[in-house]
Prior knowledge:
Keywords: Isomerase, Magnesium, Metal-binding, Phosphoprotein. Belongs to the phosphohexose mutase family. InterPro entries: A-D-PHexomutase_a/b/a-I, A-D-PHexomutase_a/b/a-I/II/III, A-D-PHexomutase_a/b/a-II, A-D-PHexomutase_a/b/a-III, A-D-PHexomutase_C, A-D-PHexomutase_C_sf, Alpha-D-phosphohexomutase_SF. This is Phosphomannomutase/phosphoglucomutase. By secondary structure, this protein is of the alpha/beta class. The protein is built from 14 helices and 22 strands. The strands form four sheets. Strands 1, 2, 3, 4, 5, 6 and 7 form a seven-stranded mixed beta sheet that branches. Strands 17, 18, 19, 20, 21 and 22 form a six-stranded antiparallel beta sheet that branches. Strand 10 (about 235) and strand 11 (about 245) form a beta hairpin. Helix 1 crosses helix 2, helix 8 packs parallel to helix 9 and helix 8 crosses helix 11 (about 340-350). The relative contact order is 0.10.
Amino acid sequence: MKAYDVRGVVPDQWDEPLAELFGAAFAQVTAADAIVVGHDMRPSSPGLSGAFARGAAALGVDVTEIGLCSTDQLYYASGALNLPGAMFTASHNPAQYNGIKLCRAGAAPVGQDTGLTEIRELVERWTRAGAPGAPEAAAVPGTTTRTDTLKDYAAHLRSLVDLTSIRPLKVVVDAGNGMGGHTVPTVFEGLPLTLVPMYFELDGTFPNHEANPLDPANLVDLQKRVREESADLGLAFDGDADRCFVVDENGDPVPPSAITALVAARELARHGGSGTIIHNLITSWTVPEVVRENGGTPVRTRVGHSFIKAEMARSGAIFGGEHSAHYYFKDFWNADTGMLAALHVLAALGGQEGPLSALVSAYDRYTGSGEINSTVADQADRIAAIKAAYGDRPDVTLDELDGLTVTSTDWWFNVRPSNTEPLLRLNAEARDEPTMTKIRDEALAIIRA
């Protein structure tokens, strides 16, 4: 179990009987009268989601099953129906994995501090030797109904971005055999777009490449196709299609921080030129700069969707973005939707005559390292070593909001421990390439010593 979802190998680490217990535990912890459940295209997903629904219904909870959907489509259903929700997906993980992303009514996050710990403890109690082996069934079980929310989801997204007057665009979309192949045709229907689909066939064995666009290797096919087609841009979705990556007309990746800055400027304009924008602490310096330039207030937060969503709700923020291409919108119940970010990019590009590379250059001002992972024996020891190396320098400041961030006038870097692996994750940025390379290599030398 991770900080904000359940994930593991099927059937070795979990299976349908266990999913049924999770359904019962979710029903008990949320105290809901009704819930909504959806799933991705993985071979194990229909069985697991069905078992979860049975577990909840056995406790008297009415279940709305929306079947095949993207994660943000499940969030839409949770928001529009005002019901707690469960999405069966392992996102970008390999085919043998599956998991559950959970939310309360209105797509409010369920994480370790907001119900996930209690759910885990209930499941553990019910499966422990010598303990009661199952939750007590209700006298009257809940009902189970099926409904399709895809068209309503698409209509809601289209209501949030004005695409009526954009110029015709040619866009290549790599769905990675994931749920983007299910959602994109309906969301894009009727727009002045020439759509070039790649890997739209739903296949949870991922026959073409992993559905993880954060890995540059998985963008190669899209980049090549954009150049071959002389397309205006390319879009790549991850397995559950809640993240969207963008490549420009040259096939060059657009950093998610640049997309965050672009969408932030557009959302601030939509909300009258003011508002709070959330960004995690490893997005580019560009993001808070653009937010301030456009009348907004930037708020820096930890990495992770449960932290971002909680801060969105607390601060009333209108938008939030992460380096990992998760984008959060107040008008989407503070939930993340890569599809809505993609529509913003299409609207921005189609609303002017220049190429995407020129458009995003204003939102991509610094040089970043990207995320570099290092396997270490002792995470705390290596972070302490970095702290010792930089702590006494008068030209730097340190903070420990999430891992350790070291900041100077012309550069910064952050080192965070992985929650699930013996890794340290380094992100560095500077005003120019030589400075970034120097500071990146200095930090890596300490991490890998």
